[in-house]
Each structure stands twice: as C-alpha cells, then as structure tokens.
Write the structure tokens for this entry.
Amino acid sequence: MVTNVGERVSAAAVFHRGRIYPKWFVWRGRKIDVRETNSAWRVQDGLTVRWYFSVSNDASRFELSFDSSRLSWTLEASDGE
Amino acid sequence: MRIEHSIALLDADAFFVACERVADPRLGGRPAVVVADAKRRSVVLAASYEARPFGVKTGMVLHEARRACPTLTVVESHPALYLHLSSEIEKILWDFTDRVEMSSVDEAYLDLTGVLSYFHADAVTIGRRIQARITQDLGLPVTLGIGPNKLIAKLLADLAKPEGVREVRAPDVAALFEQTPVEKLCGIGSRMQAALAPLGVKTAADLGRLPVEVLLDRFGVIGWTLKHMGQGIDHSPVRSIGGRPGPTRFPGRYVADETVIPDEVKSIGHAHTLQTDTADPGIVHSFLFLLSEKVAARLRRHDLAGRVIHVTIRTADFDTLGKQRKISIPTSNGPEIYGVARGILNELWRPNPPPPAIRLVGVSVSYLSPRNAQPPLLPAERRRSDLDDLVDRINSRHGRGAIRPAAQLPAEKFGILTPPIPPHQHDSR
C-alpha cells in the first residue's frame, strides 16, 4: 500500500553524465540505503525542474523528488515502511 | 510506378500499467489496474493483461473491478512518469524514421516507406528492432502493426497485441478484411456496428462491398468514409508535429509520395471525465470554461487559431453527444471559445426536462490557421490578444496554471481526474 509522505529528507546522490542516482536518504532519523533506482522522470513547471525517482531497498519502494531550484530532496511516497 | 507505403502503428501494451511496473517491478505478473485516485470514485485508466481475464477493463468503475477480481492491485497514476516515458519512446522512434506522429501518449504512427532502403531491411525487421530497443532501454512492451496506411496499421496493432509485430501488404488486405469483424476497424463503435447490422454488414469486407449510395442514404456524408474504410483505403498522412530537433538522420531520403509530407495539426482538443457524474450546470459550465482555456493555451503554444468549435458530452448512461459551430474569425482566446462552446452545450443539454447527469465534457477546435495571419484590428481584440500573451508568459515562467481565470475554480474544486497541474508540482511547503 503506497502512502503519501511529502516530507523533506537529507539525501546523497551521484550525478553522472547528466543522470542522477540517489544512493541513500535519511527519513525520520533513519538512514535508508537505495539498492535500486527503478525509474526516473522529470517534471518542468515554469522555471522549476523537479526530478522524481522510484527507488527500492530490500524491503520497500520509495518515491523521492529532487527540486533543482531549491536543491532539496523530498520523500513523496513510500510503501511498507 | 507507385511505391507501396509502409506505415506502422506502435502501440504500447497496457501503457500506464507498464510504466508503473517500470517504477515498481514487483507489480510484474500481477492483475493490476491504474486509477487516478484509489480513495475516491475512480474509473480504471488501464488494466494489466493479467487482470483482463477477470473481466477488468479500461473505463470500469473501480469498485466493479475489485468485485470482478478480488486479488486486484490498485495503483494510483503518475501522469508525469507516463509523459516522460512517452517522450523517451518518441526519441527512440526518431532514430528509425523522420516521420513520427505521436497520436496519443502511448501510440505513434511511423512512416517507414522511405527508410527501408536506408536500413536495408524490411518493415517487420525494423519493427522488431524498434520493439527490442524500447523493451531494452525503457522496459516497456510494445506492439507494432504495419500496413499500407494508418487504418490497416491500427487494425493490425490491435490484432497483434500484446508484444506482437504484424504486417499485411496491400495485395493481402482484401483477404484480411474477409476475416475481420467490422467493429475491429478504428472508428466503428458499437452504435455504428448496430446500425450496419441490418444492412448485412458483419465483416470489414461486407462494408466495402456495400454500394456507396446505400451508405450515403443511411449515414449522410460519412457514407464515403465508411465505403473507403471497408475497402481499406486511408489517405491520411503521418503528421510529424514539431519534428526531431537538430538535423535529420535521413538526409535526402526518398519520399514516396507528396501526400505523406507532414502537414499541420488538424485539431486541438481536451476532454475530462468528471470524478462524479453531475447535472449541476455551474459545475459543467466551469469544466467547459477550463477546457476552453486549456485548448486556447495549446493553440497559442502552436501559434494557431481555429474557426470550428466542437463540444462533446457523455451522459451518465454513456450516450455521447457532439455538435460544432463555425465562427467567422479564427480564435485562440479561451473566453471566446467558451462563449461558443456554451451555446453549443445549451443545445445539447437542455434544462427542460431535467437534463441527464454528465460524466465527460470535451472541447476541440479545428479548421486551424496561423494565429497572427491577420493581426487583431479592433482595440478590444488587441487587448485580448496581448492579455493572452501576458498570461502565457507568466505561466511559462511560474508554472502552468500559476495565473488562471476564477471561472474554472468550481471545476477544480469539484475534482479533476487529470489535473491541469500534476499534484506533485504544487509546493505547499
């Protein structure tokens, strides 16, 4: 069951050849390692560009977003945790 | 010598579900549906092939789908993901031909006529390469139908689903049509099928054999279109809108026939399925306004204006009604389109006796021409045009819908299945 979260998180990511690979993020004091990035998509709204990532660890799937104008990460949704 | 055209229709299989499976591979192999909002009344936007044997299909109300398939996985839609993957598909297609028409988010027509010699391959081989590339790069299953025109390509894609590639050449179309139920032809719905049945039409070939006078007498001007459909004739070209940025990969390629040169967009339209059927005129008019604004903004984005305004409504019992009106001066102004659309709506949906509840509203504009072919003459028209330009500039800087008419707020409050701004883009923080 997917639950909308919408909370700011700290995250680490590798930026490589025009692509972004989230590696881990900290949500509610817990560090969650990203095992796999399933897909990524980009939304442009006016001058704001936001990247969305569907990522998984061993147990759950998460939806992260990266706001390129604010340089901020948000956990948009999660299932299972 | 006349060159035979090779037109392909690429159709992504259960596209929304397939996109969701890319985002969450655990959905693979499960009966699943995509809906706009799992908590509110929603219709199924797409059903996986695993869900279909249970009778689950697109357009079904969610609770009916759950009843039909108790193990159904329900996923909420991610429109931005679908648009992203759709544009990734389009990028791949431009590597194979310079005639690409994205007819919807999950369908594209390709004209392969001129590139067969470039690739030294037949159309089926190219189709399989396209299919393999999309599956490998994006993880999406697709089907291709290939024929001498768009009508045949569409039919074959439907017959070859899922994950098929099927070609029929022009000399074999007649034999195919003998076996094809007429309702399989794109454009023949259940009503048309019912109207054709008393004329003895069961197969596509039966339709082609019917004298055109009979069809004209029964259906008016579309009699000719029906006759051509039954004969497998379709001259509509593959229209590349915008085209691939940068130089073409196929310089100086042979163009088989001047009629396939891409031309302008034919019409621009939007439709919304309402979250709940309603007979409230205030809500319906507000949706009509919102759609008129969206159509107008898209017209301006393409630098177009149009003279024919068409309104479609679908009632709660699935009756679809439509009507159009021609205006004297082409327009790309939302309130002006709305003014005409509202007049049409009032004719389609009369208040006495109490009108049926509405489940879908659509507005489209056709008979298009360049927007500023004739600059506005009257000061009021100039002001309106300047205001539109200003609103477009603000919205392109601050996001679509950043500034919008208050008249569309009732529709937004009522709920829009496909919101004008993806919900993730609202920044409430």
Remarks:
- The mean pLDDT of chain A is 90.
- The CA atoms of residues 66 and 72 of chain A lie 6 Å apart.
- Chain A is about 0% helix and 75% strand.
- Chain A touches chain B through 21 residues (CB under 8 Å).
